[in-house]
Design goal:
globular, six-stranded mixed beta sheet, alpha/beta
């Protein structure tokens, strides 16, 4: 995280009107979000974060929505880099689609009986706050697209409108406790 956001301050020293970038939740971050904070979560798949699983890109295909964030990002950039520069583990089999605004997801149909939808980028309201979750890869010395997108996401969280859908804090806590 320090390499991705070298100027970031610890949560306690942060301006509460700013955007918090984190890999996992703790009680302070849940409280900030409920009270109206803006959080960009880059899950690490460990405890108190969203679970992550490896995914072979030929198992399905990307879903790229008509979300207003895509007015700031060329759709072709996401299509062309999702399986390469931005590729990494996915948030597996998202079962809470009605509670989030999907932005970039993966569908999976390869040798399975039902379609699975995996999370790459989505947002939701939690309490009075805004949560954006990105499982896209943002690190790496040659990953200019991932680093640029990180800046776009932070700026969007600061200035963009509230997500349409919301996730109760209890559901969010349950989902992030699935990762170990």
């Amino acid at each position: 995280m320090r390499a991705l956001a070298p100027a970031a301050l610890p949560l306690g020293a942060q301006d509460p009107s700013g955007v918090v970038v984190a890999q996992a939740f703790d009680d302070r971050l849940f409280q900030l979000l409920e009270a109206g904070g803006k959080v960009l979560l880059l899950p690490d798949g460990k405890r108190h974060s969203f679970p992550l699983d490896e995914h072979w890109f030929l198992r399905g295909g990307p879903y790229i929505s008509t979300h207003q964030l895509l007015n700031l990002i060329p759709r072709e950039l996401l299509v062309e880099t999702q399986a390469f520069d931005l590729a990494g583990p996915v948030i597996p089999d998202v079962g809470y689609l009605q509670q989030v605004d999907p932005i970039v997801m993966l569908w999976d149909t390869h040798d399975i009986e039902r379609v699975k939808t995996h999370g790459l980028l989505f947002e939701t309201r939690v309490g009075k706050g805004k949560l954006m979750v990105s499982a896209l890869r943002h690190d790496g010395p040659a990953n200019a697209a991932g680093r640029w997108l990180l800046d776009v996401f932070v700026n969007y969280l600061q200035t963009g409108s509230k997500p349409k859908n919301s996730m109760p804090i209890a559901v969010l806590r349950q989902e992030v406790d699935k990762a170990r």
